[in-house]
Amino acid sequence: MRTIQNEKCEGVGSSEEDQDNSAGETELPEIDPRAEDRELKNHLLRKYSGYLSSLKQELSKKKKKGKLPKDARQKLLSWWELHYKWPYPSETEKVALAESTGLDQKQINNWFINQRKRHWKPSEDMQFMVMDGLHPQNATLYMDGHYMADGHYRLGP
């Protein structure tokens, strides 16, 4: 049992209980803070359970990792194969790829970053250009033995 000291203020009357308690202390039943916490937790869970379950579902969707849809991967791979020598899509091409695949631009960007890291080896000519600070979109290119003044290149001779 917990006890608290009665504090008497001037001008305030006292009850019979106060007069009977010669020590000036009143006994209160012991309150278990863990029981209060459990009760509050159960109350909140009942009140917000629908909201919490929908929130859990939404968060689990965002954490979901895995492969992109097959048709989206096929479209990205088709673009990759056509542009293998310089697989850096322009912003316009990224928007078009996003629209045609149903992916967001961040997914498109990440796919190309990963694809280049895993599967692209620049040609020797391209490596020298990069080391020299040249960029194919703003320089006269030399690729496959052909100068390409417009910044584009041909896949064949």
TrEMBL record:
<dbReference type="Pfam" id="PF05920">
    <property type="entry name" value="Homeobox_KN"/>
</dbReference>
<feature type="DNA-binding region" description="Homeobox; TALE-type">
    <location>
        <begin position="60"/>
        <end position="123"/>
    </location>
</feature>
<dbReference type="GO" id="GO:0005634">
    <property type="term" value="C:nucleus"/>
</dbReference>
<keyword id="KW-0371">Homeobox</keyword>
<dbReference type="InterPro" id="IPR008422">
    <property type="entry name" value="KN_HD"/>
</dbReference>
<dbReference type="InterPro" id="IPR017970">
    <property type="entry name" value="Homeobox_CS"/>
</dbReference>
<dbReference type="Pfam" id="PF03789">
    <property type="entry name" value="ELK"/>
</dbReference>
<keyword id="KW-0539">Nucleus</keyword>
<feature type="domain" description="ELK">
    <location>
        <begin position="39"/>
        <end position="59"/>
    </location>
</feature>
<feature type="domain" description="Homeobox">
    <location>
        <begin position="59"/>
        <end position="122"/>
    </location>
</feature>
<dbReference type="GO" id="GO:0003677">
    <property type="term" value="F:DNA binding"/>
</dbReference>
<dbReference type="GO" id="GO:0009888">
    <property type="term" value="P:tissue development"/>
</dbReference>
<feature type="compositionally biased region" description="Basic and acidic residues">
    <location>
        <begin position="1"/>
        <end position="10"/>
    </location>
</feature>
<keyword id="KW-0238">DNA-binding</keyword>
<dbReference type="InterPro" id="IPR001356">
    <property type="entry name" value="HD"/>
</dbReference>
<dbReference type="InterPro" id="IPR005539">
    <property type="entry name" value="ELK_dom"/>
</dbReference>
<dbReference type="GO" id="GO:0000981">
    <property type="term" value="F:DNA-binding transcription factor activity, RNA polymerase II-specific"/>
</dbReference>
<dbReference type="InterPro" id="IPR050224">
    <property type="entry name" value="TALE_homeobox"/>
</dbReference>
<comment type="similarity">
    <text>Belongs to the TALE/KNOX homeobox family.</text>
</comment>
<dbReference type="InterPro" id="IPR009057">
    <property type="entry name" value="Homeodomain-like_sf"/>
</dbReference>
<feature type="region of interest" description="Disordered">
    <location>
        <begin position="1"/>
        <end position="36"/>
    </location>
</feature>
<protein>
    <submittedName>
        <fullName>Uncharacterized protein</fullName>
    </submittedName>
</protein>
